[in-house]
């Protein structure tokens, strides 16, 4: 029994030591948590101001529009610089790599969703000559296809005007936008796409430039960017500048039914073909005129020359000669006889008919 009692005592001592270790560990954990909480309280006091500001600004930032700006492969230099200028003017714009032309345009909707964007501006280049601009609302549409004319970038123009990089613009529209339904829809799309949201984190609380949209001949839209110089509201152009000609208006985002088709639109390929035809016809006409002029000049030169008819003077037998010899008279008589004989042989012979 003595051995068992010793074993029980050893087991009790081990249990007591294990309990003491557990109590000491729990106490140390409480002390460390208290110290860390004190330190965290000290650290959070100065940083509580920043979350409050961001939270207040996030509450005011209700318009969460973001624009995806990209172009297709094979775009020329001027199109790429125009895209860069638009990105600099729009603080709520996001970029992406060039889109392969073999892919469908519907892939832009998926790219916009991945980038958390609600609008898309896609510059499509064809034959390294023609540039098309697609503006689309990713969620429900619509989407508009424009042909871009007369592109001039900021570096190309070198205007005297200047504006802040992330300032909010004023959008100025012509009165003609309210006269036609298709222009009203275009106006709404331009306002939602190019208008910088209020209280955007990347925007600055300044308004120092104006986006001007005016309607020209054939419902072409002229875009200009002006700086507001001072309180007198004097304007100086900054750039870029370009002209948009609407091709079609679709109900969905890069798909759907055609809501409007511009009857005044002529494809650049057709224009180039007609220009080549007209140019060739003009060249052919000019060559024919030149050939006729050369021919007429040669004829006039030949007619103007006075040549002596030596053959008529020497061999004309009808001219009377005063000093005609007997030999010459005999030769002329023989020639006349031969002529008479030929005339007799040419007369019609009798065929035996009574007619």
From TrEMBL:
Disordered: annotated span: 1-58, 336-355
Pfam family, one: Brix
Localization per record: Nucleus, Nucleolus
PROSITE patterns named among the record's database cross-references: BRIX
Transmembrane segments: none
Record key words, sorted: Nucleus, Ribosome biogenesis
Described function: Required for biogenesis of the 60S ribosomal subunit.
Entry protein name: Ribosome biogenesis protein BRX1 homolog
Gene designation: Cni-K12H4.3
């Amino acid at each position: 029994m003595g051995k068992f009692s010793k074993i029980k005592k050893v087991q009790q001592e081990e249990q007591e030591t294990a309990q003491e270790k557990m109590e000491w560990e729990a106490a140390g954990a409480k002390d460390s948590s208290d110290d860390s909480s004190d330190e965290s309280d000290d650290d959070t006091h100065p940083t509580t101001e920043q979350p409050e500001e961001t939270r207040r600004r996030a509450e005011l930032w209700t318009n969460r529009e973001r624009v995806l700006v990209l172009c297709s492969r094979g775009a020329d230099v001027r199109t790429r610089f125009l895209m860069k200028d638009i990105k600099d003017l729009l603080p709520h714009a996001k970029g992406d790599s060039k889109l392969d032309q073999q892919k469908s345009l519907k892939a832009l909707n998926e790219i916009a969703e991945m980038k958390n964007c609600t609008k898309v501006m896609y510059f499509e280049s064809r034959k390294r000559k023609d540039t098309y601009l697609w503006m689309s609302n990713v969620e429900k549409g619509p989407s508009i296809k424009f042909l871009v004319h007369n592109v001039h970038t900021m570096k190309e123009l070198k205007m005297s005007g200047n504006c802040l990089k992330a300032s909010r613009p004023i959008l100025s529209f012509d009165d003609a936008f309210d006269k036609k339904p298709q222009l009203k829809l275009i106006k709404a799309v331009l306002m939602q796409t190019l208008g910088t949201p209020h209280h955007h984190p990347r925007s600055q609380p300044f308004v120092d430039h104006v986006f001007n949209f005016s309607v020209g001949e054939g419902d072409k839209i002229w875009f200009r960017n002006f700086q507001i110089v001072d309180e007198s509201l004097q304007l100086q152009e900054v750039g870029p500048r370009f002209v948009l000609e609407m091709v079609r208006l679709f109900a969905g985002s890069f798909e759907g039914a055609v809501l409007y088709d511009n009857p005044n639109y002529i494809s650049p390929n057709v224009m180039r073909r007609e220009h080549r035809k007209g140019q060739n016809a003009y060249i052919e006409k000019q060559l024919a005129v030149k050939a006729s002029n050369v021919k007429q000049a040669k004829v006039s030169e030949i007619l103007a020359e006075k040549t002596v008819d030596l053959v008529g003077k020497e061999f004309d037998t009808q001219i009377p000669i005063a000093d005609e010899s007997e030999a010459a008279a005999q030769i002329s008589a023989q020639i006349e006889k031969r002529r008479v004989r030929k005339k007799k042989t040419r007369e019609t012979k009798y065929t035996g008919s009574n007619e």
